[in-house]
Design goal:
The complex is a heterodimer of chains A (325) and B (503). Chain A has 325 residues and is mainly alpha-helical. Chain A has 13 helices and four strands. In chain A, strand 2 and strand 3 form a beta hairpin. Chain B is an alpha/beta fold and 503 residues long. Chain B folds into three domains: 3-247, Rossmann fold (3-Layer(aba) Sandwich); 257-335 and 421-503, P-loop containing nucleotide triphosphate hydrolases (Rossmann fold, 3-Layer(aba) Sandwich); 343-417, no CATH class. Helices cover 33% and strands 24% of the residues of chain B. In chain B, the strands form five sheets. Chain B has a six-stranded mixed beta sheet with strand order 6-9-10-3-11-12, with helices on both faces. In chain B, strands 18-19-20-15-21-22 form a six-stranded mixed beta sheet, with helices on both faces. The chains are: A mainly alpha (325), B alpha/beta (503). The A-B interface holds A 11, 14, 18, 192-195, 197-198, 200-201, 204-205, 207-215, 267, 271-272, 324-325 and B 307, 309, 327-329, 331-333, 338, 340, 345-352, 356, 359-361, 363-364, 366-367, 370-373, 395, 397, 399, 401-402, 415. Chain B: This is Monosaccharide ABC transporter ATP-binding protein, CUT2 family.
């Protein structure tokens, strides 16, 4: 009996040490960034601005949760920025047809799922590299956005839809509740269920997973579909905040999502990564965006800084990998 | 004559640690000029580490090396080459899209100001190839050559710089007999020139034919040096494994099941286009059926087919009931387990902990409501297997990639034992594991059989099959040539079937 307790305690301690080892670096980075921006601008560390950051992070964070699954599997999904735009447009059109809030919401999520499914089927069944598949669908989906309106934005006036991005519940913006809920959903699905375990194992070694009876094709399709759904949620939030569906919505968000996942320790080789890490990674990106905006850093400098941050993160990942072996 | 002049290369007490792992403990080696010196040891004995130290890929943690009377401490393969030590790797290191000449002269192309003198490059390569008597055209693209020809080009590449010592790492593993003869001719010429050759091979006949001196190593340490004329294959094997042959294979715990016992797996007329034809065999609970065949005989393809990885025609029955195996999940569902040949490719997720590697194939057994994992149950089951198989790991959370080869293999075994297989396929189960782990794996195989598991043991090591199997199925060229009971077996008979020379 004592032995069980001992091992539980030591397992717990080991988990804590592993968590510190895993997240220590990026947590410190996040805190350092916050300190720097606080020093440079007194308006940074205010409740209003922090809430603002969380709201801004929401769209990228949710897309990044989906991206984390895909990268964990050793794949990539470059089409999510386009899926975000299609989702917004799908919702706007459904509302414009007078479908009402709930049906429009379901339709939008279904559209995201369908686009993810296409990515998954092409990748798994035709054995095409996901990089190529999603570069292609990135273009296709981006083109689809403009079909209903010939490239014009579509306004959204449905009060429930716009309330998602604009109102609060229990003192917190609804958008933050959604992020928290989806974080918990993805985190638990990844760390506590056989589905998540299979994703880790398949990403770690596809052949070994296959030989262990894991149906890797099915898993891959499911995960691309999940990524599509997450991107659709992002699209709903974005269109809700903008009161409209824009054809260029979500442009290059896939890069922010990849950056968040990789900053959070997800390995591009697959098999390694967590939702906690991705959430912290998304916060780092959000804080950088917000802080640099407040300091009026020109947009092109922001791009350069973000690019450098991603490079450093990937380099650290590769170095850690080399040390492990 | 003093020592320095007698030996061209001399190693004393060489040690090498990788973190806590001691790959080499106390290595010594004395190589004389103009002689072939074979290094003999099992997989995992430390041969490759030793080679990597010799060519400067790794630096020793301690000890002393002397080359041609001078202290030798190469810091890179290039440095080693400059000091007169060349190596021909077992794995091909050629660029397929370049010509033979370009590959041979790679890294020291005749050039001025960075511009390669193509004509001179070809001429030098041609001279070298002619000198060695290789049947290859220096203008041909390497990608168009056969594997054996590439191996010969690799050797020419190794010899393109003047070398005092040439290391040949399993050079004949992909050569046919006639191509091997070309290589042996080259070795004779090099010997006559005074080049020392360090030779690594598993083929005992070849070793006895070529070697002048043989150093046996085991578990990272020097065991003995013998002159070829003063030793025998039996003595060398005994030195290599550290015990006599008859002590290696644990005896059967219970008699093999008789023909009256119903087979758990019955395969009839199994064919797979282009790979194997009309394979039929059966295996009973508690029986060990050996599968022997040379590389390319189709034995691994048959095993993959039994595991749903190949589309086949024919009849597979488990417990007398016909089954369809479309994927590994189907095979696992009917009670088949498969310890694959390459544990790093098909066996383990190296970045995942030991625990989740062990539970990988039996994951549904640890699923509660809505697919939630039952971690406590998983840990208990994994710990039980770790204890039963004696896996040496600091904890269940250790990453599988951090374990030694033998312990990794035990994790793969544990993974399959958790599925409680009725039929367990073991494809080269002891490849790349150290001697100690090998014996433990043999013991585990015996125990599993005693518990009633039917075992299909695939191995290219004939002694292993002869030592463990109750019957042996011999494959050649995609056909099952014969199934012979243990009592009637001799190594000669098995080889005759496997090479298709049996009358």
């Amino acid at each position: 009996m004592t032995q069980t307790t001992d091992t539980t305690i030591s397992a717990g301690r080991e988990q804590l040490r592993a968590a510190l080892h895993q997240y220590g670096g990026i947590l410190v980075s996040l805190i350092v960034l916050c300190v720097i921006f606080t020093v440079l601008n007194e308006r940074f560390m205010t409740v209003a601005n922090l809430t603002n950051i969380l709201q801004q992070v929401a769209v990228v964070a949710i897309a990044a949760f989906g991206m984390t699954w895909v990268i964990l599997l050793g794949e990539i999904d470059l089409s999510i920025g386009s899926i975000i735009a299609v989702a917004g447009m799908a919702g706007a059109q459904a509302l414009a047809f007078g479908w009402g809030f709930a049906p429009a919401l379901l339709f939008t999520l279904a559209a995201g799922a369908a686009m993810g499914l296409v990515n998954g089927v092409l990748t798994a069944k035709l054995m095409l590299p996901s990089f190529i598949v999603t570069v292609a669908t990135m273009g296709i989906y981006r083109g689809l956005v403009s079909l209903p309106t010939n490239g014009a934005p579509a306004m959204i006036s449905d009060p429930a839809w716009t309330a998602i991005g604009g109102s609060s519940w229990l003192g917190l913006p609804i958008i933050i509740w959604i992020v928290v809920a989806l974080f918990l959903f993805n985190h638990i699905l990844l760390s506590r269920t056989t589905f998540g375990r299979r994703a880790y194992l398949t990403g770690g070694n596809r052949e070994a997973a296959l030989y262990s009876g894991i149906k890797v094709d099915r898993l891959k399709i499911a995960i691309f579909t999940l990524s599509g759904v997450m991107a659709a949620v992002s699209g709903i939030l974005l269109s809700s905040r903008l009161y409209s569906a824009q054809t260029n919505a979500g442009m290059s968000y896939e890069l922010d999502a990849i950056a968040a996942a990789v900053l959070g320790g997800t390995s591009l080789a697959g098999g390694v990564g967590t939702m906690v890490g991705t959430l912290i990674g998304a916060l780092i990106i959000g804080v950088m965006n917000n802080g640099m905006n407040m300091l009026s850093v020109p947009y092109f400098y922001q791009l350069i800084v973000k690019g450098l941050v991603i490079l450093i993160a990937v380099w650290l990942d590769v170095r850690a990998k080399q040390r492990r072996s | 004559m003093n020592q320095a002049a007698e030996f061209v290369l001399s190693l004393r007490d060489i040690r090498k640690s990788f973190g806590p792992v001691e790959a080499l403990k106390s290595m010594r080696l004395d190589v004389r000029p103009g002689r072939v010196h074979t290094i003999l040891g099992e997989n995992g004995a430390g041969k490759s580490t030793l080679m990597k130290i010799l060519v400067g890929v790794h630096q020793p943690s301690g000890g002393e090396m002397v080359l041609d009377g001078r202290p030798y401490a190469p810091h890179s393969p290039k440095d080693a080459a400059a000091q007169g030590l060349a190596i021909v790797f077992q794995e091909l290191s050629l660029c397929n899209n370049l010509s033979v000449a370009e590959n041979i002269m790679a890294t020291h192309e005749p050039a001025r100001l960075g511009f390669i003198n193509d004509r001179k490059l070809r001429a030098e390569a041609r001279a070298l190839v002619r000198d060695l008597g290789l049947p290859v055209d220096v203008g041909a693209k390497v990608g168009h050559l056969s594997i054996a020809q590439r191996q010969l080009v690799e050797i020419a590449k190794g010899l393109s710089k003047p070398a005092k010592v040439l290391i040949l790492d399993e050079p004949t593993s992909s050569l046919s007999d006639s191509e091997a003869e070309i290589l042996f001719g080259i070795i004779d010429r090099l010997k006559a020139r005074g080049t020392a050759i360090i030779y690594i091979s598993h083929r005992m006949e070849e070793i006895m034919r070529l070697s002048d001196d043989i150093t046996v190593i085991r578990d990272g340490a020097y065991v003995a040096m013998r002159k070829r004329d003063e030793t025998s294959i039996e003595e060398l094997i005994a030195l290599m494994v550290g015990r006599r042959m008859d002590e290696i294979y644990p005896p059967r715990l219970a008699p093999a099941p008789g023909a009256d016992v119903r087979p758990v797996l019955d395969v009839r007329g199994l064919s797979c286009a282009g790979r194997f034809r009309d394979v039929g065999f059966e295996v009973r609970p508690g029986e060990i059926l050996g599968f022997f065949g040379l590389i390319g005989s189709g034995r691994s393809d048959v095993m993959n087919a039994l595991f749903g990885m190949r589309s086949t025609s024919g009849d597979i029955r488990v417990d007398g009931k016909p089954v369809r195996l479309r994927n590994p999940a189907d095979a696992i569902a009917v009670g088949i387990g498969f310890v694959t040949e390459n544990r790093k490719e098909e066996g383990l997720a190296l970045d995942a902990p030991v625990r989740s590697n062990i539970s990988m194939a039996a994951l549904d057994g640890f699923a509660g409501k809505a697919g939630f994992l039952r971690f406590g149950k998983e840990r208990r089951a994994a710990r039980a297997e770790v204890q039963r198989l004696g896996v040496r790991t600091s904890s269940l959370e250790t990453l599988a990639g951090k374990l030694s080869g033998g312990n990794q293999q035990k994790v793969v075994l544990a993974k399959w034992l958790l599925t409680r297989p009725r039929v367990l396929i073991l494809d080269e189960p002891t490849r790349g594991v150290d001697v100690g782990a090998k014996f433990e794996i043999y013991r585990i195989i015996r125990e599993l059989a005693a518990e009633g598991t039917a075992i299909l043991l695939v191995s290219s090591e004939l002694p292993e099959v002869l030592g463990l199997a109750d019957r042996i199925a011999i494959m050649a060229e995609g056909e099952l040539k014969a199934t012979v009971a243990r009592g009637d077996l001799t190594p000669e008979l098995v080889m005759a079937h496997a090479t298709g020379t049996h009358q």
